[in-house]
Amino acid sequence: MDVLTPRSLEQALRLKAERPDAVPIQGGTDVMVELNFDRARPAALLNLNEVAELRGWSRQNGRVWLGSGLTYAEAMERPLAEALPALAEAARTVGGPQIRNRGTIGGNLGTASPAGDALPPLLVCGAEVKIASVRGERIVPLPDFVVGPKRNVLAEDELILGVSVGGTESRQTFMKVGPRNAMVIAVVSLAVRVDGDLRAAFGSAGPVPTLVRAGLGDVDSFPQRVAEAASPIDDVRGTASYRRHALRILTRRALDRCLV
Amino acid sequence: MARLIRTEKEVEGRYEEVWIVVDEDALDRWPAGPLTTVGQRVPRVDGLARARGQALFTADLQLPGMLHTAVLRSPYARARVISIDLEPARSAFGVRAVIGPADLDQLTDEPGYVGHAVAAVAADTFGQAQAAAERIVVEWDVLEPLLDADEAVRQESFVSDVANYERGDFERGLGGADVVVEAEYRTQVVVHNSLETHQAVCHWEDDGITIYISTQYIWGIRASMADHLGLPPDKVRVICHAMGGGFGAKNSPGDYTPIAAELAKRTARPVRCALTRREENVAAGNRNATIQRLTAAATTDGTLVALGGDFVNAVGYSGWSATTEGPMKMLYACDNVRTTQYPAKLNLPPMAAFRAPGFVEGTFGLECLLDELAVKLGIDPLELRRMNYADSDRTDDRPFSSKNLAECYRRAEPHWAKRDEVRARSRGPWKHGIGLASQIWYGGGGPPSYAWIRVGSDGRAQVVTAMQDIGTGTRTAMAQIAAEELGIPLDHVQVSLGDSARGPFASISAGSSTVPSMGPAVRSAAADAKRQIIEIAAQRFHLEERVLDLRDGQIVSTDGGSWPLTEVTGLLESGQILGQGARGPNPAGMQVLTFGVQVAEVAVDVETGEVRVDKIVAIHDVGRVINALGAESQVEGGIIQGIGHTLSEERIDDPATGSILSRTLDAYRMPTIADVPEIVSELVDIPDEHLTNLGSKGLGEPPIIPVAAAIANAIRDATGAEIRSLPITREEMLRALREAEAREKERRGAAAAV
Amino acid sequence: MRIELSVNGEPCEADVWEGESLLYALRERLGLPGSKNACEQGECGSCSVLLDGKLVCACLVLAAQAEGHEIVTVEGLAEDGRLHKVQEAFVAAGAVQCGFCTPGLVVATADLLARNVYPSDDDIREALSGNLCRCTGYAKIFDAVRMAAASL
User: Which domains are present in chain C?
Assistant: First the structure.
């Protein structure tokens, strides 16, 4: 196994082009579990910790740019937390502080788990994922980026640079159901945003996090529509019928919160 | 004088008749309540080493040349090995030895559960061992597993005999009842998940073996490994200085110790065999699932006239069947009780004792059923329990050595009286309620157990006994007892334990028995040393022994004389005063039990099914309290484990294959600090005047026993919903709410029809 | 591969396997067994250390990622041979039972109090929710954090 540690984005993209089999590792909260449990033995790891260009966030033309190396802990801090409150609330529910200090938005996108906590808030805020390789850059809307459970559109020489997010002036919130008060992988999670329309996105209730939209006049029927948009399964964390039920209740409560 | 007696010995509710030799136990009783050191809030004497990360756990041990083991475990619940090829593992990098079913009894070619050990590899690193184990080629004949406990009962697949019990006449009692309630309760499999996984390091030296092991019973390991290896017991040295939690699962050598011993023998190197967290969740024991079909019947005045139950223990492939029916037989003064217990043998991982095995499960069923009965009778649940108070052990009419459950109930009253206030907190979907449940359990400990004490010329004492501190604070409690008896400061006492080659036999640290078994032996040893010191002081100061005593590090006489202890011990230079002590017998003809009651306040979100525990008040009667701080921590720890058992913890099995789906700590959900309610703990602290020279019983297990029932009863109080199954997931909560709603509708319909 | 890093203020070197965790390197190569291995997936916090001043699970940091960075483990918390106040408070409050989780909790608490001198109960819940303890029931851990906060 090789560990490649680029010191710049340019170097990172070059290494990824040379070694497409290298698995990117940033916070390690997913990759290290695979290694520790001996579930994966990649030929190479691409350590992105030293690539400064991937860090931090900024405001750009009324939108917010989140570097792929932005940690959950950073997403919880003001003023970013005020611009993207649903993302901040979601980040707060991720693991414990040790995980939030290391886990990144880019990692959540790269893993593309149906339970990825950052994905519903990003979906309701119209996130666009910026991807790069030595061949150039491209922008993919988040709904098109995640194509299946733990599958995304990244080519083998590409890295995630970050996401551009809108909706920063809107009312938005995040909710998550789990069997205990912390350290929870979502039984179901939900982000709701009320701006010109109603938007809801949920996790752990279908193969990919899913966005549902409706007009402002559809407040009463929206919870049911969200529940119906889900295609949950029974698994070790919960049943499909409970997930649908919870989505309906949570959507109503989230709307109450956003429409005060 | 040594005395040979035949006595009943109890561990975890299991009895056996044994011969034991005991020394007389004729010390004066200490007065009730906190003394100079005993009964005080005392921080851990060994706490700093742990807080600095310096305590040496088995997991931390590094021996020169030590090898690491990976165990190949069966992926099938029931299978036969048609052929196994170990050669690919033998030729892998770093590998020093490979063993299979032909080499060791603990490795099987007919696995009976997922996780059953089949082969093992020792290599220079764990990673190498793991990689090599994956190369072992096994051809399996996969057989149909038996996974359903009721089906096992139908097929009469049992690990031991079906246990039938009846007193009085159950049917006649039932016939005379005004109100009858029946319900089926189910409890899930939960896993101990101690933070230090099961592990041992074995090292052959000369013609014997040294075993470093995370264990609750170094003498048990010594005996079973000596037997397994065909060695005289003294050729087996067992060491456990610090261990990271056991909760009942670390009483025996498991498969990992014999595996490490065999690989160490073959390689002539020290070998570690440590379970991974994933193995821990499969192959290290568990609290088995139960099904309880229960009946309770009473007359309108609240007198219980019949209690009955069929209890199915889903024991797993092997293990023993805990007394799930125990609370039903023992808690109340009911004349007519009939129970049947079925020990189902299944193709699932074997059970291991887990903090009050059987009674945790049985109390959930019984105490929930009693509340259902109270509702039907229109009698206050606390009152109903008092009406049926047992003044003796109704299974054999033996008197209790002491029982202060009535005092526990009395102290619970102010908390119980807040029912209306708590219910009035309900807002929107959140419904609040209060519930209670009683606790009965063993915890008297027993002989044999021995301790030595040596007092040096500096007047300091060392307690030497080959017991183990499993994290409960044994070193501290034993130091307190010795300091109290010797009248010296606590920091003048050291406790040496954890090594079978250093010190005499000591009891298992299980069954809430450490303090009640070992404490009296330590006091007895200290008293022996004290008697000698006084004899010497009498000669030195030309006084009569009866006027002398030890207090605050001084030798004092009744006429006001006072000499530093070192004035006598200092005469000895390198000489020492050696005391020895033994645990006396339990009181003949008496039943020694612990009691308690817990009151839970909960809130239920009736829309999402979320259950939140706001507060638990725990009041227990365990005789004299040795360390008030440590005791409180035992209560709090038991309650949180109980909350996990009640709300979130569950080993999840694939019902078709018997594979274990929850193998990691993200899937097996133990409570975090964010799940902790307000906990109020109160100990009655009245010494048991018939029990030993201390009057102390054990406290490790009692606090977990009533938690689930108290929470479920509070849920009924809040919502009317009847919980029948653990854990109370949101699905189970919503199911119970729907059922309560349907029942209510039916009742209103019936009322309207009239 | 060889890595250079700072551990508890001392520069040090270790030969590590490319795929191994910082926890493995600390325990098996650098002789620092204070950080415990209990879950290997960042669920239990027993291996909590500070990486450039940030609280992390050493099991989720690739040893190679620590190259050139500063690590503080439980063994490095005591200064000048004197115990850290958090360590003292954990013992005095009775927050130590078996002690396997204690090093991780001590490091996490030290990290909390470095950022927040007067933590509320909710702050404590949030800051320590990544550290599992199977023995104490956490009540005494609350006491220890409050006691340490008062003594700092």
Answer: 2-73 (3.10.20.30), 85-151 (1.10.150.120)
